[in-house]
Amino acid sequence: MRNYNSNPMRELDPFDGLLLIDKPVGPTSHDIVDEVRRHLQIRKVGHGGTLDPNATGLLIILIGRGTRLSNFVMGSDKTYEGIMKLGIATDSQDVDGVVTATKDFSAVTREQLETEMKKFVGDFMQTPPMVSAVKIKGVPLYKLARKGQTVEREARLVHVYEFRLLDFTPPDVHFVLKCTKGTYVRTICADIGEALGCGAHLASLRRTRSGEFDIKDAITLNDFLATKPDDLIPRVLPMTSIRPSHDANRQQP
């Protein structure tokens, strides 16, 4: 196993950099990090932005000295494609949660839906959901939620650049959304469902871009695990692939 605690002036290792993984449904982002660590036999591995277990798509893996770029990668803007399902509200605001209400959605029109979506383009304050990794006094909110506790959360400033309807086949709303880091897409879906009077939750989510990186350049987890480590070297992007930009350095919530 490679040791990254040696002479700090050493030359870069071929695996120092970034690897783009197309995350499947099921594993957590940390599970993917563990898989990469085991497969490459490298201790120092991280990721550049969490995806929920049921979310798929672009997960940027930081390897070796590439972990030093975490703040730049985390701070970049993200683009998602997703499906919002009308008529069902859940306690987690997504498909993993317990159903809290079911209502008729048949009266909702495409025009009403697009009107509500437009309200979320731009700057706005967003309160993190209870089922989230945000910590209060060092305790993740989701752990408190599991105990049935609800605590006050501080609203954060987020920005949505684009929120566009791709297809409306009730109860499913297919959309694309580009936003700053820390934006909870499932909370936006829940808020729209409440505004429409029928409830809604996030049924599926796929990250297609993070900063300048695109899902089309990612390798699936299965293909990654089926490839010998040395044959993966061409897929490792150099640390110079990250260029500090106004997106990464802008004031974050």
Query: How is the CATH topology of the largest domain named?
Result: Pseudouridine synthase
The total strand number stands at 14
Individual helix count: 7
Q: What is the helix content?
A: 10-25%
Major β-sheet annotation: 10 strands, mixed
The radius of gyration over CA amounts to 20 Å
Strand content: 25-35%
Oligomer: single chain
Brief summary of the model shown:
The protein has 253 residues and is an alpha+beta fold. Helix content is 21%, strand content 32%.
Topology:
Blueprint: E1 17-23, H1 29-40, E2 45-47, E3 56-63, H2 70-74, E4 78-86, E5 88-90, E6 99-102, H3 110-118, E7 122-126, E8 135-136, E9 139-140, H4 141-146, E10 156-169, E11 172-179, H5 185-196, E12 200-210, E13 213-214, E14 219-220, H6 221-226, H7 246-249
Parallel strand pairs: 1-14, 3-12
Antiparallel strand pairs: 1-3, 2-3, 4-11, 4-12, 5-6, 7-10, 8-9, 10-11, 12-13
Describe the protein.
The protein has 2 domains: 17-75 and 212-249, Pseudouridine synthase, CATH 3.30.2350.10; 78-209, Pseudouridine synthase (2-Layer Sandwich). It is globular, with a radius of gyration of 20 Å. It is of the alpha+beta class and 253 residues long. It is built from 7 helices and 14 strands. A hairpin with a 2-residue loop joins strand 10 and strand 11.
